[in-house]
## 1
Amino acid sequence: MSVSVRIPTILRTYTGGAAEVKAEGATLAAVIADLEANHAGIGDRILDGAGKLRRFVNVYVNEDDVRFADGLETATPEGAGISIIPAVAGGC
Amino acid sequence: MRREGLAIMAVTAVKSVTPESFGPAVALSCRECGARTPLAPDFACSECFGPLEIAYDLPTGDPEALRARIEAGPQNIWRYAPLLPVAADVAEHPNLNPGWTKLVKADNLARELGITGGLYIKDDSGNPTHSFKDRVVAIAVEAARTFGFTTLSCSSTGNLAGAVGAAAARTGLRSCVFIPHDLEQGKVVMAAVYGGELVGIEGNYDDVNRFCSELIGDPAGEGWGFVNVNLRPYYGEGSKTLAYEICEQLGWRLPDQIVIPIASGSQLTKIDKGLKELIALGLVEDRPYKIFGAQAEGCSPVSTAFKAGHDVVRPQKPNTIAKSLAIGNPADGPYVLDICRRTGGAVEDVDDQQVVDSIKLLARTEGIFAETAGGVTVGVLAKLIKNGLLDPAAETVVLNTGDGLKTLDAVEPTTGLSATIRPTLDSFREAGLA
């Protein structure tokens, strides 16, 4: 499955400044692995030492927060748009 | 290996800052991993995505002199400028000058709830745009000006939109703010009247917040200061002034217990930070205090996590009349859990009917008309007493963070005329009003 991944400013040092990159994978975990294969180091920024999504990272597959879906096992259909966003924004 | 100096840069060209621009603030520090970066419009750690907050070199050594300096300052938050990330001459800049709101001794409400140790309402509806948001925005405006931003923006549940609009108008900045499309009409009007752009997003607050986070990484967001995104470390510090004011108004001492509403949780964490600073500076005696968090049942991710014993917060889809607290994915939720547990407090929630009843209870007993968030805190106060988690014999402070005029919809169905009579004394008597 080929998907588009929106890269937050914080991680663009790994993508040569690109705000959006293509990746392959049928699940979010596979997509992140593919990102790591092509942009070495980016995986460790998104996942913690135990291989889970970091506490302060939000990931959306199309419109859905993966924490409301299946987390790293969330399916990433062909053409899906994935957004990686720092979670610390907003609020009072 | 830790790489220093990497963090989110929201804009490509940021005005350089001098050491004096931010007073006692010296760096940004990651609350999660401790990595430090220079003061800049950054908000998330490049190492771990954790929240960046302000690190200070505070004026230690002579608490009496500092106390005297504060007491001689203006009757607004700038009296605490030596403890905030602002320039020493901040009071001379155009700003809404919020703060120094009333700390109301609530004896009638205390009697009603069986509180014997003293009860106070910190009534922040007295701020320029009638909510505590003026405090945080005032600091963010100073940071925006220092960094050279030309547009002030935010994601908002309503109160913040009004505070940003008003502050931008006063300071001559453009404003463009984003809100959920279905907010209370009162808040929409109070945000729009200041003349900036007000954009409704088809979605809930978390959708709005996501949109703003994406806009900030896009060329369309260049030159924009989002008070609660790229200026969030500065903005959040404004909530410390609630802690400073409460303690100063109590005669420079800590209360035993504080009940604070939770939306993102930032306010609660910053009040705790403020209390700890006052202790470290010797401005108040170091003794235990308890912090309690209050949520609406229809958006209670932090309360749910607290009761379940979790240290992570699972997001929820909000469904409550307390829209100013309707953040289903609270950024500071994990830290709220840490603080409430560390201090021996708790996090509790009340349903929407209890929110309405509590708004009316506070109005009836103390003459304070709170918005729904105030109904949440008063309702949770009552519930905490009932379930034995809050000591009625200890001195307690409850926050009212906004004005009931903004959320008339909440109480309108159950309030109104007592009677309609002819203009005669007979009619008055017949209605049973004599």
Note: Helices of chain A lie at 28-38, 42-46.
## 2
Amino acid sequence: MKNFLSTHNRALKAEWLKLHHSGMLWFCLAAAAFIPAFHTFVSFFESVGDLSPESGNKMIKMDFEIFTNFFFPVFLVIVMVRLVYMEHRFDTWKLIETQPVSKAAIYFSKWEIAAIISFCCLLTLLVVAFLGGLILQYGRPALGFDQSNVDWGYALQALTRFWIASLCIISIQYCLTVLVKSFALPLSIGLVAIFAGSFAQALGYMNWWPYSATQITSDTYGGAPNGDFLLSHEKISLISSLLFIWLGYQLYRRRSIKKAFLSPIKNLAVAVAVIAVFAFAISVVNKPVILERYNATVIAGEIKSSTPVTQVLLLRSPMMDTILTIPVTTDRFHISTDKEIALGIYLVKAGSQVSRVFMGSKDSIYLSISFNEESPVVKVSGTRAAENDYLVNGKRMDMEILSRHADNVNPSDYADDLIEYHNDGIRMLETFKTSDRIKPANDFIRLRKKLFATQALALADGFYPKVYASYFPNQELEFPEEINSLRASVSINSPELISFPQYRRYVTSVLREKSGNNDSLYFAMMKDSLQDPYTRDVIMYEAALSSVIKIKDSILRNKMMAGILLNMQTQTAKTKLAEANGRANSLHSGKPAFDFTAEALNGKQIKKFDFVSKYVVVEFRLGGCEPCKKESIFFKSLADRYTSPQLAFVSLSLDEDKKSWHKEANLTKENKVMQLFSKDDRKWISEAYGLTKISKFVMIDPKGNIINPQLPNPSEPEFEMILQKEIPLQRFNDN
Amino acid sequence: MSFAIETRDLNYSYARDRKSVNNLSLQVPSGSIYGFLGPNGAGKTTTIRLLTGMLLSDKDNVFIQGKSLQKNLPEIFSSMGTLIEMPSLYLHLSGKENLRLIATMRGIPRNRIDDALQTAGLAAVANKKAKQYSLGMKQRLGIAMAMLSDPELLILDEPANGLDPTGIIEVRELLIRLNKERGKTIFVSSHLLGEVEKTCTHIGIIHHGIMRYNGTLEQMKASAYTAADVIFKVPGAEHWLPQITPQYPYAKTQGSDEITLPATSREEVTHINQQLVRMNIPVAGIQLRGGLEEWFMHIIDQEKDKQIL
């Protein structure tokens, strides 16, 4: 050790001298600069990815991600092989080993040089990406680099994590190259290890594989969900680096595996002991943890926004009743509450942003909300980090797909499919871990398991019987035993699941099926079979809400609503339902149409009032259902034929994704239909106009009153007939 | 007497059934040029690797300037310069940079580098990459690197290997100069007897891992003499032989006009000659056969004989 310390500096300096004329530094520079330089170059011609806002940070992130995903580990392997092969080639080992420098210093200083090169490479990439951003700031102002500051702390944290992830690759490859005295073989082994790791990562396995470490860091660029500086694979990288430096040094010192680790027996014992200690350390770091509940219920967080936000609301779906109101001061909020919060999914509303969060009492939750017009970004950490990560990123089986593959399938096969999907879902749930090895808590797993059962049963009991009846009429439907055991695991009376829409769908589908599509029987069954008052009210509320939209006859509707409201206990549900019914009543001819705000293709704000003195036919579009697209085409052809300054055809999109709307609307720019993108609260406008998942056509007169709250589809002849009848235009340009 | 290098019963085997170095005891006096002689595969390089700590023997039995090698690694290399087999150089670096590397590792001032280049006759090509050097230049650079820190002891493995005659002479002169002018102890291995004879003051001979001989050049020359034959040119040798055999039972004829007899000293040769003249044998000439080369072969043969038996 004394020798090591006293001779280490000389050895390191000598290693540095060896890099002269070796081309290594140029290689490092070229490897690191290539991606950001190319990115900058290409950005002059087209936008690479979605940069604005935060262009500077995003460019650095993107370049880091691309580089570290594959190129970086390859770079490291090549560097290490070259550094060592430099000695193998003309056996200069014997030259440096007969100098008054300790062997440990020789071995370790070479490792240090590789680690320094790795760091320099990452630093170069960061600097070139930053310079690229500067160039683009002046070269392509449209990309918005002038409005974004680079968050250096964030970038340097990422750099450090990538570097730490690289250390293990260096150490293992070093060990390998010392052992195998050729150029091609260790290089090939390294490359194969990288490829194998990539495949395993793609399939979701081996997230500890050292050669994939930089790739995993790249996938979790933003850091650990729970805020640790290092993710567990990075900690493993550090630990196994030490192990492989030790192993490699033994190999180097003693020249062969046998002498280093096998004989004499003392070496074997030491090797086994060292490996055992490291294996234990790695297993401790790699072991999944389940977070304990906190001793109070705390919700805190931060908001990154250009417009100030004064409060954050915790809402309960589906009635959107406010559970907590949290004041925000200088973009931060914190509340500790004694209020009982039932375990489940809640909505967090900050400004216009709404996002989901799973929590309950005795949870401490931290929310980082960043405002971004295009896509809301809310990161949940704290005691429910793993649960919320699962809800966003967890691989899940889409059981709904089985609703498309039920035709002519006999019950036992269908049950097999359901059980298989159900079991796969549970397996994935049980093996889920966050990138920093946190597992969801058992209460969450229990709830999710029940949900899987409800999903399967919604299909088995709510959906499949209808399909079965049409293919096998007059036959008794009989499922195998497995479905019965599923039935035993969950019932429609599971109030703890009420916040999950899957459960609510299950209950309604089962009751629908039982009631044989008779509305009054349907509501009566809800009243009788659902015991928990809140659960009953929620189910009734949702069912009633869809009836409000469906039933056009106001007398019939009001009568039914009165009956339903009588059976409800929750005040919020009653109020909301009454409001919805009120809106439905006012949504008929002669009543003023609700105002809407929207954005036109040229970015101009449009309001309902802008159409005063014109007849307006509005198409409310929600995404792209196939029949709706067909109707849109008919709508456009009518707009082409009925051209008049007194008549406007408007297509108002309620799409979530502005970009896809923009793309689609741009294609039909020449059309006579005015393309608008709604700026209103989706929920509000849907309720105001009684919208469902399919397009709705509404006609408004020049005073802003409704002529017809629900036109037939444009493909039907009545649409045109109503148009001609209601609008007193002298003559249409009939072409 | 102090020894620059001393080994006591040094053993090493690569394979279990064959010892590459077998109970080797070797003494290199300080201030000597020690020629370590042996045919290819005799164990020379293995011995050198053991002397330089590249291979470690199981026991602590190598001593450099009286100090245990194993206990004083790596600082023992401060007083020791080595060149093992072909010079190991960083070919992508220039001669000067190679020397700078050694200077860095040894922690010695850089101004020695120019001196070393001068001594090795490489000043003109100092900034050329070592890749472009001729074999002789590489060898000289290797020696320059070994003596850069001015160590008391140089261990050189076949420094003349692969060199042309001029190169060999250059290296030889360099070694003699270092020894005479600066008093360095030089341990040099070779498989060329003539080379060793011209350079060294002390000789060690190894064969099949066994030390066959260890002594000064003078002693060796004397020993070599003892193993020589005297050839008397006698026309009609067959005819005269029966007259000689009663007195010299080892006499043999060789061809038709030569009689050979073993002799152990110059006096004995004179004595035999007088006897033969007294017997009226017509001695036409006297010739001494053998010398170092013969003796060297003889030593190696002994080993072979042993193996055959």
Note: The interface with chain B takes residues 3, 7, 10-11, 13-14, 17-18, 20-22, 86, 90-103 of chain A (CB under 8 Å).
